[in-house]
Amino acid sequence: MAVRLLIVVLLISLVSLTHASDPAPLQDFCVAVKDDEAKVFVNGKICKDPNMVSADDFFFPGLNMLGNTSNPLGSKVTPVNVNQLPGLNTLGISLVRIDYAPYGLNPPHTHPRGTEVIVVVEGTLYVGFVTSNPADPNMKNKLFTKTLHPGDVFVFPEGLIHFQFNVGKTNAIVFAGLSSQNPGVITIANAVFGSDPPINLDVLTKAFQVDANVIKYLQGQFWWNID
């Protein structure tokens, strides 16, 4: 456990030394007020009265607990961003723990507001990301992949589609730091085929160059969010 905690501390330190996506703070701290208690809406969170701030605003317990991977994807993300830890407001960092059952998947997704760096604590993961569209229309988006083992670190650049897949026969665990208090998540399949209301059938049929029945089938599936 001491090794895991050391890894997490190191991970947070590395992220904090990078240029974060979020604006720099203008005071020592700005503990977030819950959205349902706020009287105004701003880009981020409004600040709690400093005289009402306590140590609990900077504390989150439980990352030592296993995530429940009993779902179709076999993975569970436990986020620690500004919504769980209000003291992160304006600090430009957040953290997640990800658990994977054997052959569990964190499916292709993006973080529109943050770079992600992961460190493997247990298991063997096949990970990768895909570049944005190249300037040359004759070139394809490039895929970068790596098989990771305990102690290995990998970074996913901000906004790029990426994934992690447990290729081992045992459970896997990673911790990840992100360069935003609220990096956001867009799971590609969920967004394209599971939006509410659904994207127009003609749009998706044209975009994917497949029969309309294929799109109808995909839109009829239950798209699982892992966090």
From TrEMBL:
Family matches, as CDD domains: cupin_OxOx (cd02241)
S-S pairs: 30-47
Location of this chain's protein in the cell: Secreted, Extracellular space, Apoplast
Residues that hold oxalate according to the record: 106, 111, 116
Cellular component aspect of the GO annotation: apoplast
Residues that hold Mn(2+) according to the record: 109, 111, 116, 162
All residue ranges annotated as the Cupin type-1 domain in the record: 61-216
Predominant localisation class: secreted
Keyword 4Fe-4S applies: no
Pfam families (alphabetical): Cupin_1 (PF00190)
Similarity comment: family membership: Belongs to the germin family.
Name of the featured protein: Germin-like protein
Annotated source species: Olea europaea subsp. europaea
Lineage: Eukaryota, Viridiplantae, Streptophyta, Embryophyta, Tracheophyta
